[in-house]
Amino acid sequence: MCKILVIDQDKRPLNPIHPARARQLLSHKKAAIFRRLPFTLILKKSLPDSSVSELRLKIDPGAKHTGIALVNDATGEVVFAAELKHRGFTIRDALTSRRQLRRSRRNRKTRYRQARFLNRKRPNGWLPPSLQSRIYNIKTWVKRLRKFAPITAISQELVRFDMQLMRNPDIQGKEYQQGTLAGYETRQYLLEKWSRQCAYCGVKDVPLQIEHIQSRAKGGTNSITNLTLSCKKCNIKKGTKDVKDFLKKNPTRLEKILKQAKHPLADAAAVNTTRLALLEILKATGLPVETGSGGLTKFNRYQQNLEKTHWLDAACVGISTPKLIIKGIKPLLITASGHGSRQSCRTDKFGFPIRYCPRIKVHFGFQTGDIVKANMTSGKYIGQFLGRITIRSRPSFSLKTTANKFDVHPKYLRKIHQADGYSYEF
User: Fold this and answer.
1) DSSP 231-279
2) So what's the pLDDT on residue 312?
3) Which member of 219, 222, 337, 391 has the lowest number of beta carbons within 10 Å of its beta carbon?
4) Could you tell me the residue ranges of all domains in the chain?
5) Fold for domain 180-266?
6) Are 419 and 409 spatial neighbours (Cβ–Cβ below 8 Å)?
7) Helix axes 129-148 and 266-283, enclosed angle (nearest 10)
8) Vertex 67, ends 273 and 336: CA angle to 5°?
């Protein structure tokens, strides 16, 4: 069962408690709700059993999702789990749009100016905003969870499994590339790149073979851009045929394969670029940081017969992983949504301004993104509703629930959770 986080009167983290115990404390008015997401109680007076157990924060960073788990090393109990969805690719697309608008505006409004990109020097350790946001998201949640849980150690998945380097630390060069696991990383890369399915027929959940798009007999190479995955049936049927002849009756799939073959694995690149920067952020907390490999995570998960999810991968990170107790755990799904835009005006698709944005972000004590409870006593929608609001300068906010979207006066609203740049669901 997922535990409830607890802090004392001085806001120091205590042992997470069972939900039944939390309901008892609330009903007897011995505690109050300090935060809704993640759900946290603050005690009004000390409890007799106030001993604190040590918890380990485990992180499995990814390009799109990061798994987070709080594990008690002594008992193996997972007390909290979350899956954090990043917005890196959204930031990338926004920066691309901004650059296009800026360049079109300069072409319309100003004379030609010589390029200035050579007079800017990036600091050491600079990362693109789309990658830096991933690190900041994890940093935010590490800091947040340390406030509400007694975390004494951190585990991070850092690198992939590499048996050659373990057997021979001095291995290098050609010997390293052509060792006993020469095809291991290639196969893992192709599985991710081609979504674990046959490139020619799309079949899944069958044994897949590494296939040369242009066969070796016709001059094809072992380059990663010439490799794909194929089921046994398609591999035999294609043989040494040219891929254009083999798929001449299916031009759509042919075009997709040729395009995908040269496309890099952006997710793997994002993780590899940010992993060391994230490690430095975690070390800066002052807590001991354990690093584990992806192969060890997979081994721990298989040993305990657990399904593959982001939060379970996080719980299995590192050599310190005990026998896990995950009964009743339901992860908190967190989506990074940002804090709005600083854009001073909105534009149409051609880059021309169509309206301006107000500078004031708070009206009647509310801001866009707040989670509120509406108690409607009249009108079309009568009853209690829970959702997020979009504010306006006039007293008519837009409330979006899971089923409806309607306007509501702020006098009917009660704030449940203040906008913090993230959205939540279970």
Assistant:
1) EHHHHHHHTT--HHHHTTT-HHHHHHHHHHHT---HHHHHHHHHHHHHH
2) 96
3) 219
4) 5-43, 180-266, 357-421
5) DNA Binding (I), subunit A (1.10.30)
6) no
7) 40
8) 75
Q: Classify 340 as helix, strand or coil.
A: coil
Rounded CA separation 314/310 (Å): 6
Q: Which two tokens stand for residue 237?
A: 């049927």
Other CB atoms within 10 A of residue 199 CB: 25
Instruction: Find how far residue 144's CA is from the centre of its chain.
Output: 16
- Please say whether the beta carbons of 26 and 33 come within 8 A: yes
CATH of domain 357-421: 2.30.30
Rounded Cα distance, 128 and 135, in Å = 11
Chain centroid to Cα 281, Å, comes to 17
CB 47 within 8 A of CB 289: no
Number of H helices, E strands in the chain: 12, 21
Tokens matching residue 209: 């073979």
Say which residues have a Cβ less than 8 Å from residue 179's Cβ, sequence separation at least 6.
164, 171
Q: Is the peptide bond before 38 cis (omega within 30 degrees of 0)?
A: yes
Q: What is the pLDDT of residues 86-128, one digit of tens each?
A: 998 899 898 998 888 877 777 776 666 676 666 677 888 899 9
Q: What is the pLDDT of residue 165?
A: 47
The CB density around residue 34, as the number of other CB atoms within 10 Å, is: 16
- pLDDT tens digits for 333-392? 999 999 888 788 888 877 788 888 888 889 999 999 999 999 998 888 889 999 999 999
User: What pLDDT digit, counting tens, does each position of 130-167 carry?
Assistant: 999 999 999 999 999 999 999 999 999 987 544 444 44
For helices 266-283 and 184-193, angle between their N-to-C axes, nearest 10 degrees? 110
**DSSP symbols for 133-176:** HHHHHHHHHHHHHHHHS-EEEEEEEEE---HHHHH-TT--HHHH
Taking a C-beta distance cutoff of 8 angstroms, is the pair 40, 34 a contact?
yes
Question: Do 362 and 369 contact (CB within 8 A), yes or no?
Answer: no
Length of the chain: 426
User: How far apart are the C-alpha atoms of 306 and 327, rounded to whole Å?
Assistant: 12
Do 357-421 and 180-266 have the same topology in CATH? no
